[in-house]
Amino acid sequence: MKQAPEHLVALIEPIVEGLGYECVGIEYNPHPRHGMLRIYIDSENGILLDDCTKVSHQLSGMLDVEDPIQGEYQLEVSSPGEDRPFFKLSQFEKYIGSSVNVSLFKPIDKRRKITGLIQAVDGDAVMIVEGEQTLKVPFQAMSKARLVPEYLLKKGGRSGK
């Protein structure tokens, strides 16, 4: 998964959780001039713009002091949305029975993209039912995974992400 390096996670997660939010995941895309640090937050009551602003303000101060990232980057704090990304195996467990889009580093059954229902988490793999087929997808083989929103399933469409 596209999780940020461990030293960034160790700095950011405690601040987000200390403010009363769940740190769903952290994406870091380094670039000399256009880097991006995106933090996904959630709470039982959902996320509003004020929540993102509050977390962003706290993180900005810490990142300025600690300076863990070389070069310029943009800080973004966001709700995971209905097509929430998955960063941890435990997130798949939480959504058993839901549809997911998974992109893979290496093909499984000659395919790099899988869309299906999360059936179970088995050790370090996720069991995904696609049509009549059940695939055991190792978590480490996933480059990206996102929940498929219910409204897309009802329309028969798929997420383009």
Top keywords for this entry?
single chain; 161 residues; alpha+beta; five-stranded antiparallel sheet; three-stranded mixed sheet; 4 helices; 8 strands
Structure described in brief:
This protein is α+β, with helices and mostly antiparallel strands. The protein has helices spanning 6-18, 49-66, 89-94, 150-155; strands at 22-29, 35-42, 73-78, 99-108, 111-122, 125-130, 133-138, 142-147.
Shape: globular
Strand content: 35-45%
Write out the strand line-up for the largest beta sheet, numbering strands in chain order: 7-6-5-4-8
- Helix/strand-derived category reads alpha+beta
Q: Strand tally, please? A: 8
CA-atom Rg in angstroms: 17 Å
Quick one: biggest sheet? 5 strands, antiparallel
Number of helices: 4
Average pLDDT reading: 90
* End-to-end CA span: 14 Å
Task: Note the run of SSEs as H and E.
Answer: HEEHEHEEEEEH
Percent helix, as a range, is: 25-40%
Low-confidence stretches: none
Domain Ribosome maturation factor RimP C-terminal: 87-150
Function: Required for maturation of 30S ribosomal subunits.
Subcellular location: Cytoplasm
Pfam family, one: DUF150_C
Describe the structure.
This protein is of the alpha+beta class and 161 residues long. The protein is built from four helices and eight strands, in the order αββαβαβββββα. It has a five-stranded antiparallel β-sheet. Helix 1 crosses helix 2. The longest helix is centred in the middle third of the chain and has 18 residues. Keywords: Cytoplasm, Ribosome biogenesis. It holds the Pfam family RimP_N. It is found in: Cytoplasm. Required for maturation of 30S ribosomal subunits.
